[in-house]
Amino acid sequence: MKCFKFEIHHQRWHHVQGKLVTAMVSVLGRLGKVDLAGYVFDSAVKEGYGNTIYIYFALISAYAKSGCYDEAIQIVVIEMPWSPSI
After folding, report:
1. 43 near 35, Cβ under 8 Å?
2. Could you tell me if 58 and 36 are in contact, meaning their C-beta atoms sit under 8 angstroms apart?
3. Which residue has the higher pLDDT, 73 or 4?
């Protein structure tokens, strides 16, 4: 996490920061650390570079892989600024 925090604060472009957050949330989800993935996601949204569909899907995937289906559905229904077209 220290390397991630260092890199995220030294990047100048929001699209690069968004890609880093997406990768970090995906890795944390694969490791089963959904609380930490949620923290990274919330921090990115608060900082203004976490508002991409890729980051939302990475968090939904992290919750689903960990068996937290209610939280994954809550993100789709309540928190996503876009409506899914499924």
Report:
1. no
2. no
3. 73
Q: Which amino acid is at 70?
A: D
Encode pLDDT of 13-65 as tens digits. Answer: 556 677 888 888 999 998 999 999 988 888 888 887 777 888 889 999 999 98
Domain ranges of the chain: 8-79
Residue of 43, 81, 75 lying closest to 58 (CA atoms): 75
Residue 12, phi then psi, degrees to nearest 5: -95, -30
75 and 60 Cβ atoms separated by less than 8 Å? yes
Tokens of 80: 């996503």
- Rounded to an integer, what distance in angstroms lies between the CA atom of residue 55 and that of residue 8? 15
Burial class (CB within 10 angstroms; exposed 0-12, middle 13-18, buried 19+) of 44: buried
